[in-house]
Automatic annotation (TrEMBL):
InterPro entries: Bacterial_PTS_sugar_comp, PTS_EIIA_man-typ, PTS_EIIA_man-typ_sf, PTS_IIA_man. This is PTS fructose transporter subunit IIA. CDD domains: PTS_IIA_man. It comes from Lancefieldella parvula. GO terms for molecular function: kinase activity. Transmembrane segments: none annotated.
Length: 143
Protein backbone atom coordinates (compact mmCIF):
# COMPACT_ATOMS: atom_id res chain seq x y z
CA UNK A 1 0.00 0.00 0.00
CA UNK A 2 1.13 3.57 -0.56
CA UNK A 3 0.61 5.79 2.49
CA UNK A 4 0.44 9.54 2.98
CA UNK A 5 2.00 10.53 6.31
CA UNK A 6 1.39 14.06 7.63
CA UNK A 7 3.66 15.31 10.44
CA UNK A 8 3.92 18.73 12.04
CA UNK A 9 4.32 20.93 15.06
CA UNK A 10 1.14 21.91 16.90
CA UNK A 11 -2.12 20.61 15.49
CA UNK A 12 -1.41 21.30 11.81
CA UNK A 13 -1.05 17.67 10.65
CA UNK A 14 -4.21 16.33 12.35
CA UNK A 15 -6.08 19.43 11.17
CA UNK A 16 -4.91 18.87 7.60
CA UNK A 17 -5.90 15.21 7.92
CA UNK A 18 -9.36 16.24 9.14
CA UNK A 19 -9.88 18.60 6.20
CA UNK A 20 -8.77 15.91 3.75
CA UNK A 21 -11.24 13.46 5.31
CA UNK A 22 -13.95 16.09 4.89
CA UNK A 23 -13.09 16.86 1.25
CA UNK A 24 -12.01 13.45 -0.03
CA UNK A 25 -13.53 10.99 2.41
CA UNK A 26 -11.76 9.02 5.15
CA UNK A 27 -8.90 6.84 3.90
CA UNK A 28 -6.93 4.04 5.55
CA UNK A 29 -3.77 5.19 3.80
CA UNK A 30 -3.60 8.64 5.43
CA UNK A 31 -1.70 8.76 8.72
CA UNK A 32 -0.99 11.87 10.77
CA UNK A 33 0.68 12.84 13.98
CA UNK A 34 1.91 16.10 15.46
CA UNK A 35 4.34 17.26 18.10
CA UNK A 36 2.21 19.38 20.37
CA UNK A 37 3.50 21.97 22.82
CA UNK A 38 5.09 20.39 25.88
CA UNK A 39 5.74 17.02 24.22
CA UNK A 40 9.38 15.99 24.10
CA UNK A 41 11.11 14.20 21.24
CA UNK A 42 11.13 10.84 23.06
CA UNK A 43 7.38 10.89 23.70
CA UNK A 44 6.71 12.06 20.14
CA UNK A 45 8.82 9.21 18.72
CA UNK A 46 7.09 6.64 20.90
CA UNK A 47 3.62 7.80 19.85
CA UNK A 48 4.57 8.18 16.19
CA UNK A 49 5.98 4.63 16.25
CA UNK A 50 2.50 3.42 17.17
CA UNK A 51 0.98 5.39 14.28
CA UNK A 52 3.49 3.75 11.91
CA UNK A 53 2.82 0.19 13.13
CA UNK A 54 0.58 -0.75 10.15
CA UNK A 55 3.42 -0.10 7.68
CA UNK A 56 5.23 -3.13 6.28
CA UNK A 57 8.44 -3.50 4.28
CA UNK A 58 6.37 -3.68 1.08
CA UNK A 59 4.70 -0.31 1.62
CA UNK A 60 5.62 3.06 0.15
CA UNK A 61 5.31 6.35 2.03
CA UNK A 62 4.84 9.96 0.98
CA UNK A 63 5.71 12.19 3.94
CA UNK A 64 4.51 15.79 4.15
CA UNK A 65 6.04 17.83 6.96
CA UNK A 66 5.61 21.42 8.01
CA UNK A 67 9.25 22.55 8.30
CA UNK A 68 12.43 21.09 6.85
CA UNK A 69 14.77 20.05 9.65
CA UNK A 70 12.01 20.20 12.26
CA UNK A 71 11.73 17.49 14.90
CA UNK A 72 8.46 16.01 13.59
CA UNK A 73 9.84 15.47 10.08
CA UNK A 74 13.34 14.35 11.07
CA UNK A 75 12.00 11.91 13.67
CA UNK A 76 9.45 10.53 11.20
CA UNK A 77 12.19 9.89 8.64
CA UNK A 78 14.40 8.28 11.28
CA UNK A 79 11.59 5.94 12.34
CA UNK A 80 10.85 5.06 8.71
CA UNK A 81 14.56 4.31 8.23
CA UNK A 82 14.50 1.99 11.25
CA UNK A 83 11.55 0.16 9.66
CA UNK A 84 13.59 -0.24 6.45
CA UNK A 85 11.25 2.04 4.50
CA UNK A 86 13.49 4.99 3.68
CA UNK A 87 14.22 3.69 0.17
CA UNK A 88 10.44 3.50 -0.37
CA UNK A 89 9.82 7.02 0.97
CA UNK A 90 9.64 10.47 -0.58
CA UNK A 91 9.50 13.42 1.81
CA UNK A 92 8.51 17.05 1.43
CA UNK A 93 8.49 20.09 3.69
CA UNK A 94 6.26 23.15 3.50
CA UNK A 95 3.06 21.12 3.44
CA UNK A 96 -0.17 22.85 2.50
CA UNK A 97 -3.69 21.64 1.68
CA UNK A 98 -3.30 21.70 -2.12
CA UNK A 99 -0.06 19.73 -1.78
CA UNK A 100 -1.73 17.14 0.45
CA UNK A 101 -4.72 16.76 -1.86
CA UNK A 102 -2.37 16.55 -4.84
CA UNK A 103 -0.28 13.91 -3.09
CA UNK A 104 -3.34 11.78 -2.39
CA UNK A 105 -4.58 12.17 -5.96
CA UNK A 106 -1.12 11.21 -7.29
CA UNK A 107 -1.15 8.14 -5.03
CA UNK A 108 -4.65 7.25 -6.26
CA UNK A 109 -3.47 7.66 -9.87
CA UNK A 110 -0.58 5.26 -9.24
CA UNK A 111 2.16 7.81 -9.90
CA UNK A 112 5.65 6.94 -8.71
CA UNK A 113 9.21 8.15 -9.00
CA UNK A 114 9.85 11.53 -10.60
CA UNK A 115 6.24 11.85 -11.82
CA UNK A 116 5.01 11.56 -8.22
CA UNK A 117 7.56 14.05 -6.90
CA UNK A 118 6.90 16.55 -9.69
CA UNK A 119 3.14 16.34 -9.24
CA UNK A 120 3.31 16.92 -5.48
CA UNK A 121 5.78 19.82 -5.77
CA UNK A 122 3.70 21.50 -8.48
CA UNK A 123 0.49 21.22 -6.46
CA UNK A 124 2.18 22.66 -3.37
CA UNK A 125 3.74 25.57 -5.27
CA UNK A 126 0.60 26.31 -7.28
CA UNK A 127 -1.41 26.41 -4.07
CA UNK A 128 0.45 29.50 -2.88
CA UNK A 129 -0.76 32.66 -4.59
CA UNK A 130 -1.20 36.32 -3.86
CA UNK A 131 -4.78 37.47 -4.03
CA UNK A 132 -4.83 40.96 -5.52
CA UNK A 133 -7.61 43.03 -4.03
CA UNK A 134 -8.82 45.84 -6.25
CA UNK A 135 -11.35 47.77 -4.21
CA UNK A 136 -12.95 51.04 -5.18
CA UNK A 137 -13.35 53.67 -2.46
CA UNK A 138 -17.08 52.88 -2.26
CA UNK A 139 -16.31 49.16 -1.80
CA UNK A 140 -14.19 49.81 1.30
CA UNK A 141 -17.17 51.38 3.05
CA UNK A 142 -19.13 48.15 2.49
CA UNK A 143 -16.50 46.11 4.34
Amino acid sequence: MKYLLLVSHGTFAPGLHSVMDMLMGPRENILSYSMEDGVGAAEYRENLSKVLEPLTADDEVVVLGDIIGGSPLTNALDLLAKKGLLSHTVAFSGANLPMAIGALMAIDDGLSGEALVSSILNEGKNGVNQIVLALEDDDEEDL
